[in-house]
């Protein structure tokens, strides 16, 4: 039987973020369309040649994108909202980028309510997270009576482009059912049946054109198959694939599922008239048995055995032991669990990483090498790759026992941790009384979320210091001066609870990861977050501990400048976990508990240094929710427990704040309540306080700072506008519950609008007090 190797998608940003650079040059007018297209073509050619050379039999095409593959699909089917002024024909680059980023018009001096920002003529389409990844896609938008027509031949063009380079690719399409499921409609609701009927002819046309161009296999991604699906969605899948199978008899469809198991959708998936099925055996190894038992003998199975969502080297002998019996029975394709879009490109670039840690890792290139090794072992016997297998096993063994990973002190502390650690001494009502006495704050107290503008000067100083061009002492002095100025200014405008401004922090997770043991950082391990934006997630590889206090000195300095309470500012354990690559040798909750204990120590040290108010940000708590509802309870239980471990080491009089910058709480309000923070600040300005309904209904007992202005825009809200929002909040909450603050941190803003907006905010709070 034969074993081949497939790649479901390769990172598109380029080994040195070439795509980011090319896009940003083009957007800023420093390059023209020709240069952008040439850069993109070079990246594609490089990725194809590289994958081919690594031994990949099914090299993907159309996995490249100028911005996002979901947006590419909207362009392919001509789902372009009317506001973009597109009138049919091929979707041009300007329209495409207008949907991705909005199109800016002329500067407006005034736009009705005294704002001074540049008016955006056309806003970008809405962006949201791709399943449970940190990749963001542009949400497809369908109008009433939406019609579809083939409006981009990108998928065919790229197939031909590769063909001209001598590489026969397997084009990738986002499947119609997942595409429609991700979309949103306008008033009147979405008629998904009608949309599906309308969109299938476009997909059919694409498949016909691909067949004419010489394609044989086409990968169709339907990750919706790992979600809980309604009966009509099962029917939609049957209808869609029944139609597509007939459309282009020369094309063999590889239906790709990933990010989880098929579970209840297994029967539907196996009943579809497709030539191949890809399953994720990293997230859901248990589905191999049921799939093998029920799959048609001629169905080509693609087995996702190497983790496409994480950075760990695979244990090849362990994988082989599972695959050998399967490969004796049928032809199989070996693949990463999902597209490699979510991993960094090449470990070879990480020359500065600790050698042991490095020996445990595999990025996109190394993962494809692993697959080629596995395929050879299965086709020609283990002896043909004995050395590679031995190296893999040795690395796995070393990782299991390395003292860099396993810290006896952390293990002992974890073993001794009991539930008492996750409980404050007294319930909120009792804490509130002592906190009020100690803090003596006015009604409607004002504060901010933590960061102040990271100006050009701040970024320059950080870069210079990083490069060694600025001494520690000079950098330190610079940061102190920024901090002092910010503290003084907050006092002047009359804020009640101050912050130091976070000027010393590069990033809210990295800053802590760099000071904790158990984390490693890459130089080039970039992963696309959206468009040209890339992130370099920390790699959590071992037991976590805190060698020394992380924020106490900065806090002490800032508090020394003022009598008013200075907030201690920390990132919470769940957020640190969710924004990192996490070790796969222990359960996520286990790693999170270790981080929680480390943050707890910091909280206790801040209190000991005199902090009366400590904020623990959990910006990423909600996004960690598992894809299937049935898994939510378990996640929320441990996530909440970790927050409580981090926050419960202090006396009743110490006020614990948390912050979450999003506005959907209906699903998780009980968990938010269980976190038992004294104050929570949330995003509300854009939803006009509507989301407070969830808090009111739940009878949330503690204090809430519903953001009164949207920090995502430079617009300065007027006093009346914020006062009206506070009125709206009072309609839903008791006045003594309400804090006054912006939606989130101010690091992306500039000083002039920040000053004006916060001064107005303080004035709005004073109005609210006068009315109390
Ligand atoms: N304290 C952080 C800040 O103000 C919080 C950022 C966030 O929640 N995303 O920047
Ligand atoms: Zn925030």
From TrEMBL:
Alphabetical GO biological process terms: L-methionine biosynthetic process; methylation
Active site: 712
GO MF annotation, one: zinc ion binding
EC number: 2.1.1.14
Binding site for 5-methyltetrahydropteroyltri-L-glutamate: 17-20, 129, 134, 533-534, 579, 623
Biological pathway: Amino-acid biosynthesis; L-methionine biosynthesis via de novo pathway; L-methionine from L-homocysteine (MetE route): step 1/1
Catalysed reactions, semicolon-separated: 5-methyltetrahydropteroyltri-L-glutamate + L-homocysteine = tetrahydropteroyltri-L-glutamate + L-methionine
Statement: the UniProt record of this protein carries the keyword Repeat: yes
Necessary cofactors: Zn(2+)
Binding positions (L-homocysteine): 449-451, 502, 617
Domain of life: Bacteria
Keyword terms of this UniProt record: Amino-acid biosynthesis, Metal-binding, Methionine biosynthesis, Methyltransferase, Repeat, Transferase, Zinc
Amino-acid positions noted as binding Zn(2+) in the UniProt annotation, renumbered to this chain: 659, 661, 683, 744
SUPFAM superfamilies membership: UROD/MetE-like
Function of the protein: Catalyzes the transfer of a methyl group from 5-methyltetrahydrofolate to homocysteine resulting in methionine formation.
Family membership: Belongs to the vitamin-B12 independent methionine synthase family.
UniProt protein name: 5-methyltetrahydropteroyltriglutamate--homocysteine methyltransferase
Species, as recorded: Teichococcus rhizosphaerae
């Amino acid at each position: 039987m034969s074993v081949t190797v497939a790649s479901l998608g390769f990172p598109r940003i380029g080994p040195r973020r070439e795509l980011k650079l090319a896009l940003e040059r083009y957007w800023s007018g420093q390059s023209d369309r020709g240069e952008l297209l040439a850069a993109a073509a070079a990246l594609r050619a490089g990725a194809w040649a590289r994958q081919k050379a690594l031994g990949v039999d099914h090299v993907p095409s159309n996995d490249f994108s100028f911005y996002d593959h979901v947006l590419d699909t909207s362009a392919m089917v001509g789902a372009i909202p009317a506001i973009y002024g597109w009138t049919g024909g091929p979707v041009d680059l300007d329209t495409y980028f207008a949907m991705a980023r909005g199109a800016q018009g002329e500067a407006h001096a005034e736009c009705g309510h005294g704002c001074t920002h540049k008016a955006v003529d056309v806003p970008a389409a809405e962006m949201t997270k791709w399943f449970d990844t940190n990749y963001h896609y542009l949400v497809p938008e369908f109008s009433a009576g939406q019609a579809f027509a083939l409006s981009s031949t990108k998928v065919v063009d790229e197939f031909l482009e590769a063909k001209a380079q001598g590489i026969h690719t397997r084009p990738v399409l986002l499947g119609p059912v997942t595409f429609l499921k991700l979309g949103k409609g306008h008033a009147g609701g979405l008629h998904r049946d009608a949309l599906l009927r309308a969109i299938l002819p476009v997909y059919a046309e694409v498949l016909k054109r691909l067949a004419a161009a010489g394609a044989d296999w086409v990968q169709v991604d339907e990750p919706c198959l790992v979600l809980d699906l309604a009966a009509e969605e099962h029917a939609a899948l049957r209808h869609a694939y029944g139609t597509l199978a007939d459309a282009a008899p020369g094309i063999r469809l590889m239906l790709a599922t990933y990010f989880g198991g098929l579970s209840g959708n297994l029967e539907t998936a196996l009943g579809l008239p497709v030539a191949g099925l890809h399953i994720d055996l990293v997230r859901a190894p248990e589905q191999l048995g049921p799939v093998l038992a029920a799959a048609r003998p001629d169905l080509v199975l693609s087995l996702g055995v190497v983790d496409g969502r994480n950075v760990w080297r695979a244990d090849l002998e362990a994988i082989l032991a599972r695959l050998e019996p399967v490969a004796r029975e049928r032809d199989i394709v070996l693949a990463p669990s999902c597209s490699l879009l979510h991993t960094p490109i090449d470990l070879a670039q990480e020359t500065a990483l600790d050698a042991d840690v490095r020996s445990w890792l595999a990025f996109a290139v190394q993962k494809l090498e692993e697959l080629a090794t596995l395929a050879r072992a299965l086709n020609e016997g283990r002896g043909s790759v004995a050395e590679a297998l031995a190296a893999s096993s040795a690395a796995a063994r070393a990782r299991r026992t390395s003292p860099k990973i396993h810290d006896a002190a952390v293990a002992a502390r974890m073993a001794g941790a009991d539930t008492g650690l996750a409980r404050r001494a007294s319930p909120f009502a009792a804490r509130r009384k002592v906190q009020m006495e100690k803090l003596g704050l006015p009604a409607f107290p004002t504060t901010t979320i933590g960061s102040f503008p990271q100006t050009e000067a701040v970024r320059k100083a950080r870069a210079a210091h990083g490069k060694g061009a600025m001494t520690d002492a000079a950098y330190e002095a610079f940061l102190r001066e920024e901090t002092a100025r910010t503290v003084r200014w907050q006092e002047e405008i009359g804020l009640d609870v101050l912050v130091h401004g976070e000027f010393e922090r590069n990033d809210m997770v990295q800053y802590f990861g760099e000071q904790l043991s158990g984390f490693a950082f890459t130089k080039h391990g970039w992963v696309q977050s959206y468009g040209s934006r890339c992130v370099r997630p920390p790699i959590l590889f071992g037991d976590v501990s805190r060698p020394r206090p992380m924020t106490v000195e900065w806090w002490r300095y800032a508090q020394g400048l003022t009598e008013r309470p200075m907030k201690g500012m920390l990132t919470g354990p769940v957020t640190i976990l969710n924004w990192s690559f996490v070790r796969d040798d222990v359960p996520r909750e286990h790693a999170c508990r270790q981080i929680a204990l480390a943050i707890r120590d910091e909280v206790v040290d801040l209190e000991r240094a005199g902090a009366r108010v400590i904020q623990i940000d959990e910006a990423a708590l909600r996004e960690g929710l598992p894809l299937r509802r049935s898994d939510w309870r378990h996640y929320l239980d441990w996530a909440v427990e970790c927050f409580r471990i981090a926050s419960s080491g202090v006396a009743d009089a110490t006020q614990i704040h948390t912050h979450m910058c999003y506005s959907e709480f209906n699903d998780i309000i009980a968990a938010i309540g269980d976190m038992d923070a004294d104050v929570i600040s949330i995003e509300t300005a854009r939803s006009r306080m509507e989301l407070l309904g969830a808090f009111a209904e739940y009878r949330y007992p503690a204090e809430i700072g519903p953001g009164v202005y949207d920090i995502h825009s430079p617009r300065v809200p007027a006093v009346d506008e914020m006062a009206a929002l506070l009125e709206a909040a009072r309609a839903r909450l008791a006045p003594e519950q309400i804090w006054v603050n912006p939606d989130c941190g101010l690091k992306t803003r500039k000083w002039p609008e920040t000053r004006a907006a916060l001064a107005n905010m303080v004035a709005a709070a004073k109005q609210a007090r006068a009315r109390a």
